[in-house]
Amino acid sequence: MSSEYSPEWRNSQILNHPIFMQNLLGCLWTGPVQQLYQQVSRCMILRQSAYLEESTGKGKSIAMEFAVERLSQVAGELPCVSFKAQKNDDPSGRGFYKGLLTSVHHNKIDGETSNLQLRAKRRVEELGVNSPSGTVILWVDEAQELNVADFLFLRDLQNGLRGVHADLLVFMTGEKPFLHRRIEEAKWSASPAVIDRFAMKRLSLGGYGLDEVRELFGLIDTAVWPAASGITWTQFFFPKAFEAGFRLHTQAIACTGALESAKLLSRDGYCQARLLKMVVQRFMLDQARHDNAEFVATPDAWRDAVSDAMGANTDEADDTEDDGKGGRSGR
């Protein structure tokens, strides 16, 4: 490694490394994310709205963000509107409309509810008219915060776009079991059409078993940062060991074994995304100081990383219900 990428340089850049980022910069195109994207892409072609309801820690929000981002790139000039439903930001009940207006870059978010609704409707219709495919994607995160009136507004918004010969596809992500309860509430309190339009299709997001962990670790071995450096993520933390042949993908069994010993895998042997990321972050950070040409990761290294991650992730420690391939029920 050239002096340009010396140990001093790595120490100065470690805070900026993608592996510690909590946004798309810190994500890799793994199997579970790819499978979710394929589902979303199919819904796009069929003009079908859908929802993703998963337990805390599953990684649903970041996975959907990744999928919607990729869809907008592949489809080309596809309007994708994303916002998070947060009721406690506006006790007046107008937070949904203000959030939507902000997401579509409208500069006026004050006024009465009816005025906010009209502005949002006109702006989204404008996006639909100007969309080459005649389609607008609306992704609502934390959708368990929606109320009946919000669902009815989405129905009216969809009707408005149909009036200008465009389609509104709504993708919702929310916490299990609260999103389903909201959908049922809207169904019985307002109209069964809420289900028909927005919740006939439930998306799924897989967890991380041994194969998925091995694939993820292989991606870490080959992902490069900084882009022009040629330095892989693994190499950044273990330059000497990497030069001597060390690769993170060989640690997949040791990692999943430590998770299993801590009883953090589902009955099918799957781990949740957030916990796995926290474990890998701690392993890389703590073991980097042992980097040398003869570096060998001990079983204790992974057990310590799991233990430390559990101390910072109390949701995982408290939730014990198994939800299949997603690991323990707990974003």
TrEMBL record:
Any one GO molecular-function label of the UniProt entry: ATP binding
Domain ORC1/DEAH AAA+ ATPase positions: 56-176
Region Disordered: start-end pairs: 311-331
Chloroplast among keywords: no
Keywords: ATP-binding, Nucleotide-binding
Protein name per Swiss-Prot or TrEMBL: ATP-binding protein
